[in-house]
Structure to design on (444 residues):
DNA sequence: TTAGAGGTACCTCTAAAGAGGTATGTGGTT
DNA sequence: AACCACATACCTCTTTAGAGGTACCTCTAA
């Protein structure tokens, strides 16, 4: 039997999107010091980034915010709208509150500042590749204030859901598989899948498990 | 009565509200090592706290969350309703998201965890007295998730589950697919499947979606 | 020492989930 | 009349989940 831990932990694939070639080079070199991480593609603008994301389906996308033409937030939205489910970590110099909040609401899985220590960056990227949300510590206060001032609202927006979709969310949260949902609603399983597909996209979620967890936590499950 | 120790007339005045006398004593001793800070009053419950706040008008109120009768959040609301404008910093053991969010929404100016280092506490209190919002770094991720509206709770656990199985339940509840769980734990996807299989059987559940819902409702995710 | 529990790995096989796409009918709007 | 959102159905294709089983290693309790 093959010894454990040689095949199973294949390195996480990363796409860099940043308009500065030098910075990309630096980050790439840094990342390649870590055997758990691998840069599989680079892009210097939104369009290239989107194309690369679709082609390589990287585990992780490191996205610069400050780019000419189409900025990082817009790029992020484009990615999500195009169905890219990779983890996206914003990597920028901006500690501007609007940027941070906008990025998180647009579905960013992390927000790291470019002035962080290299080792910290590597460890953050590893965390991110494993699904953890990573945020530079320096942003703590800012986030707390944003929460206080602005928010009681939803990132995933329930109001964009059709009645049918809400109904299906409840049934997913009840743990029902598509087949049973179909029976319960007297429609075909295929149709249920269509609704699930649509609502995953609207909510920027990646699986029915995430839907169920979200719904339960929001109290939408009954 | 502003008990004036003439030399620190400029020191920030502090009111402690905590139902544990010993903890108050400890904190008070610590604070008095710092000439910029001065404890002017103590209270062991909400009513005493409110009275003291009105009487002394402290610059800063250190408020425990976990108190009998009237908890910290309620106390905070009472203070604000009564027109107390002192900075209020919550000081507690709870890193529960609901508590943090509730405290901030109720107008807390800070949220510090009791397990922090004494020197850190002093510097945080100084910052707070100067009008800065202070939040324990440990809460960063949590706040970011709250902004995105992905709640996570925490709590006890039940049952015949092995530690490994509980660990995997948490990851399932975070919405991670088996492949990512495997990477995170540095084991193979196959092994993850084995654990999932076992825990499904033990819990008499039929799918990971049911596991996730159950875990969230029981509060044993995160 | 043996037995059992827990963790890991590997195998096969089936079912379920999810991403694409096209298409039809209905009820409202413009 | 043309358009649009919604729900429905059906299609293909790939990936993920889950059930079954065997096996090996370590640690602890009988």
């Amino acid at each position: 039997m093959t010894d454990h831990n040689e095949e199973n932990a294949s390195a996480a694939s990363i796409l860099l999107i940043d308009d500065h070639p030098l910075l990309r080079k630096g980050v790439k070199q840094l990342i390649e010091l870590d055997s758990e991480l691998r840069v599989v593609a680079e892009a210097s603008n939104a369009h290239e980034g989107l194309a690369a994301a679709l082609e390589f389906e990287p585990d992780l996308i490191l996205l610069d915010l400050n780019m000419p033409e189409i900025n990082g937030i817009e790029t992020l939205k484009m990615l999500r709208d195009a169905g890219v489910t990779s983890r996206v970590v914003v990597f920028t110099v901006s500690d501007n509150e609007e940027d941070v909040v906008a990025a998180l609401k647009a579905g960013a899985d992390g927000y790291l500042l470019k002035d962080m220590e290299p080792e910290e960056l590597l460890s953050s990227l590893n965390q991110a590749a494993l699904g953890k949300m990573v945020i530079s510590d320096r942003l703590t206060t800012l986030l707390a204030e944003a929460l206080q001032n602005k928010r009681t609202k939803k990132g995933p927006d329930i109001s964009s859901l059709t009645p049918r979709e809400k109904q299906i969310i409840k049934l997913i949260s009840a743990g029902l598989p598509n087949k049973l949902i179909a029976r319960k609603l007297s429609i075909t399983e295929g149709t249920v899948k269509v609704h699930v597909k649509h609502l995953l996209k609207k909510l920027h979620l990646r699986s029915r498990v995430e839907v169920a967890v979200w719904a339960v936590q929001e109290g939408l499950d009954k």
Notes: The two ends of chain A are 48 Å apart (CA to CA). Residues 1-2, 4, 8, 83, 177-179, 189, 193, 196-197, 200, 207-208 of chain A lie near DNA strand C (CB under 10 Å from a C1').
